[in-house]
Each structure stands twice: as structure tokens, then as C-alpha cells.
């Protein structure tokens, strides 16, 4: 029975991905993408990777959804304002001959074959002992946390996680640099709906609680800084959607501090550990748990603020 | 289900009744989802489609949640499932309301302004 569900889900995923790419209208592409993201989250749950599922649902369908819908609104407004600029002419056809398309098609075909071969190889060559599972589970008591994924992400592979936070910050810097280039802005039609504001006010404590739970629970189960950060970041976005510009209310210096806090705390922690005579992220086993929790909390706040900032700057 | 029936009759019957109720609840929930999907596909305009969708979502999910809560049988899980249903109810109702409101204001903008 569960095999049938898995196979159906795999077929649905591929179908949705194809529909998403081949959809004739931009709005259909975006909504199919939501459906794809949610199905993908379900597939992750079937694979028993609940933390990936939460991140997938929250980022791909939630956070990306807000940004995609906003850009869709701008795009359709731009189209309705001066269609000649953006719309293709009615009789638009691709004028290139078949000859010039041969090479890209060949490259695509070869790439597809190589991809198939590599994935087949990867499927066959799964290590018998389950890869590094045994090693990481053996070292789990030293890591200060009880969940293997959290241990890998924040202790054994902390360097990687630290750089991921840096990537988010770099993306935000790029948005800051290019920010405010919007040419078209649909004037907002009415004041923010009172009902929407009430519902947002109701949801914010729930989101905060759920985020805090995921952050703390990350020690013993699936969840962690990124998942918590997305939920907390959605609090900021909801505040803005409800017409409370909290991001602008925070003083500029404090904003900068909050944004860099996550990256900075990891950096300081790493260098302090080096100064104490270890490797960069070699936590002393006795304090590993509390150190990871502190670094994770700061990182979560930082990422949450960064996500809010991305939303605010992209929809300004 | 199969082995425990011999020793205690009074224990077997509640189990069977609970399972039967679970199945009935799930089937009713699925019926509402089907009806909602049919309405979404067949109804002529946005408002009727929203009506079909919210009815189906709320009632269908409610019945399925009730069925699952009964299936798991622990009160703590039942409370959690009930909370999930409540949150979904709230968010789906609000989003449907917002979509409907947006469409209505698009059709007849206030203050003579162009929408």
C-alpha cells in the first residue's frame, strides 16, 4: 500500500514539475510551483526527513510564494500599463533555423544521458554500512545534542552551516545593492483589511511558539535553526502584510547588528575555540550542547531578520 | 484485531465500533473533498468556486481529522489534530475572504478610482 502511495507521489511530482515548466501563463506556473513544493514536502515526509519537509514547505511554498506572488502582481501591472514593452508580438515566432538548434539539443540529450548514468550509479553504489551513519551515531554522545542531523549540521559540519548563513547574508547584500529599482508599482487598492490584521495578530504568537519549539526541539528531534528562522521570518513578513512596518521601526544600527549576529557569533565561537587550542569548530564535549543552542538561537534570529529584510526590500 | 476477539467480547466490540466510525468519518471527509473538487472544476465564477472549496476544505478536513483522532485514540493526539484543523480553518477562511474581497473591489472599485 505504501509503495503505491510512493509511486503515485513520484508520478505526481514529475507531472507537476512538467506542468510548472510548460504552463502557458506565468500565474499558472507560480501556482503549479506551490503545488509542486507542497507535494515535495509530502515526499520528504515519506522519506522520513521531517526537517527537510518543514524547510521545503516553509521556504519553497511560503517564503518564495510571497515573493513570487508579489513579482507576479508587478509583472501583470507592468503588462497592463504598457503592453508593448513586455509582450511579444502576436505573430512572434522563433526565427532560427533547425540547424542552429541541433547543438543545444545534442548537449541537452548528452546531459540527460549522463545524469541518468550518474543517478543509476549512485543508486547502485549505496555503501553497505549506510555511509557515515555509523560514524556519526558513534560520535553522537560527544556532540552535545541527541539528534544525528543536528549533530552533523551544527557540530561535525558546522563550517558548512556557518557558510550557509553567510550565503543568505550575501544574497541580502545583493538585494540591498540593487534595491528600489522597481519601475512599476500597483498602488495598493485599499487600506489593510481589519479582519486580516486580526488573523495575523492571532497567528503571530502561534508562529513564534512553533519556531521556538523547533529550535529547542532540534536538539532531540528534527528541526533546528533554519526551520525556526523561516517561521520567525514569516512573523516579520506577516507584520508587514498587516501594515505594521516593524523592520523600519528597528534602528538602523540594531538592524545591522541583528543581521550579522548569526554569522558573527559562529565566527567568534570558532575563533575562540581555536584560541582555546582546538580546531575551528571543535566544541568541548561538556559545553557543546549549550554552545550549539546559543549559536543556533542567534543564527535563527539573524536569518529571520534577513528573510524579513529580503521581503521588505523586494516589495518596497 | 483478529487475535484478541476470543478472550473478551466486550473489548472486541468497542474496537470494531471505533474502527467502523473511523472509516465512516474518513469516507464522509473524502466525499466532501470530492464534492469540493467537483465544484472547483465545474462552478462558473470565482465566488461559487470559493464557496465550494471552503465548504469542502473545512468539512472534509474536519471529518478526516475527527476520523484520524479517533483512530489514534489518545486524547493528546486528538487535541493536536483538532488544533491543526482549527488553524487550517482560520487560514483558509481568511484567504478565501481576501480573494473574494479583492475580486469584488476589482469589479467595482470604490470612490470611482480605477482599480
Write structural notes for this entry.
The complex is a heterodimer of chains A (about 325) and B (about 120). In chain A, about 75% of the residues lie in helices and about 0% in strands. By secondary structure, chain A is mostly helical. Chain A has 2 domains: about 1-80, no CATH class; about 145-315, no CATH class. By secondary structure, chain B is mostly helical. Chain B has one domain (about 10-105). Chain B is elongated, with a radius of gyration of 20 Å. The relative contact order of chain B is 0.11. The interface of A and B includes residues 193, 196 and 202 of A.
What is this structure, in a nutshell?
Chain A has 316 residues and is mainly alpha-helical. Chain A has 13 helices and no strands.
Helical content of chain A stands at: over 70%
Major β-sheet annotation of chain A: none
Please indicate the count of domains of chain B: 1
Tell me how many strands of chain A there are: 0
The H-and-E topology of chain B, N to C, reads as HHH
What characteristic shape of chain A results from the CA principal axes? globular
The biggest sheet of chain B amounts to: none
Q: What structural class do helix, strand and pairing data of chain A support?
A: mainly alpha
Mean pLDDT of chain A: 79
Give the SSE string of chain A.
Answer: HHHHHHHHHHHHH
How large a portion of the residues of chain B is in β-strands, by DSSP E?
Answer: under 5%
Number of structural units classed as domains of chain A: 2
The rough form of chain B would be described as: elongated
Poorly predicted sequence stretches spanning 5 or more consecutive residues of chain A: none
Salient structural properties:
heterodimer; A: 316 residues; mainly alpha; 2 domains; B: 115 residues; 3 helices; 82% helix; elongated; disordered N terminus
Amino acid at each position: 500500500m505504501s509503495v503505491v502511495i510512493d509511486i503515485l507521489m513520484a508520478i505526481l511530482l514529475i507531472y507537476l514539475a512538467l506542468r510548472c515548466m510548460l504552463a502557458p501563463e506565468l500565474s499558472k506556473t507560480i501556482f503549479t510551483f506551490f503545488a509542486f513544493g507542497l507535494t515535495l514536502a509530502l515526499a520528504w515526509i515519506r522519506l522520513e526527513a521531517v526537517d527537510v519537509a518543514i524547510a521545503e514547505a516553509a521556504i519553497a511554498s511560503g517564503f518564495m510564494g510571497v515573493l513570487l506572488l508579489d513579482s507576479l502582481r508587478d509583472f501583470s501591472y507592468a503588462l497592463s500599463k504598457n503592453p508593448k514593452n513586455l509582450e511579444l508580438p502576436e505573430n512572434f515566432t522563433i526565427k532560427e533555423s533547425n540547424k542552429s538548434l541541433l547543438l543545444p539539443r545534442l548537449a541537452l540529450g548528452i546531459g540527460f544521458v549522463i545524469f541518468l548514468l550518474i543517478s543509476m550509479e549512485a543508486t547502485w553504489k549505496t555503501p553497505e554500512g549506510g555511509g557515515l551513519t555509523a560514524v556519526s551515531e558513534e560520535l553522537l554522545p560527544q556532540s552535545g545534542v541527541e539528534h544525528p542531523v543536528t549533530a552533523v549540521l551544527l557540530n561535525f559540519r558546522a563550517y558548512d552551516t556557518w557558510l550557509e548563513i553567510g550565503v543568505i547574508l550575501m544574497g541580502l547584500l545583493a538585494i540591498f545593492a540593487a534595491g528600489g529599482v522597481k519601475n512599476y508599482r500597483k498602488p495598493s487598492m485599499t487600506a489593510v483589511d481589519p479582519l486580516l490584521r486580526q488573523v495575523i495578530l492571532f497567528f503571530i504568537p502561534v508562529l513564534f511558539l512553533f519556531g521556538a519549539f523547533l529550535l529547542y526541539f532540534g536538539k532531540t528531534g528534527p528541526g533546528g535553526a533554519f526551520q525556526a528562522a523561516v517561521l520567525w521570518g514569516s512573523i516579520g513578513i506577516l507584520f508587514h502584510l498587516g501594515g505594521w512596518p516593524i523592520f523600519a521601526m528597528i534602528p538602523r544600527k540594531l538592524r545591522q547588528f541583528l543581521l550579522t549576529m548569526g554569522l558573527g557569533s559562529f565566527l567568534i565561537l570558532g575563533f575562540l575555540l581555536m584560541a582555546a587550542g582546538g580546531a575551528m569548530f571543535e566544541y568541548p564535549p561538556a559545553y557543546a550542547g549549550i554552545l550549539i543552542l546559543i549559536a543556533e538561537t542567534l543564527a535563527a534570529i539573524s536569518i529571520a531578520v534577513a528573510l524579513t529584510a529580503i521581503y521588505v526590500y523586494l516589495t518596497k | 484485531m483478529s487475535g484478541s476477539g476470543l478472550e473478551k467480547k466486550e473489548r472486541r466490540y468497542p474496537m470494531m465500533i471505533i474502527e467502523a466510525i473511523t472509516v465512516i468519518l474518513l469516507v464522509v471527509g473524502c466525499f466532501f473533498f470530492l464534492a469540493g473538487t467537483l465544484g472547483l472544476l465545474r462552478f462558473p465564477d470565482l465566488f461559487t468556486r470559493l464557496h465550494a472549496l471552503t465548504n469542502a476544505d473545512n468539512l472534509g478536513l474536519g471529518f478526516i481529522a475527527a476520523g484520524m483522532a479517533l483512530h489514534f485514540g489518545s486524547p493528546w493526539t486528538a487535541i493536536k489534530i483538532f488544533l491543526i484543523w482549527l488553524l487550517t480553518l482560520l487560514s483558509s477562511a481568511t484567504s478565501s475572504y481576501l480573494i473574494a474581497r479583492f475580486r469584488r473591489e476589482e469589479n467595482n472599485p470604490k470612490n470611482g478610482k480605477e482599480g
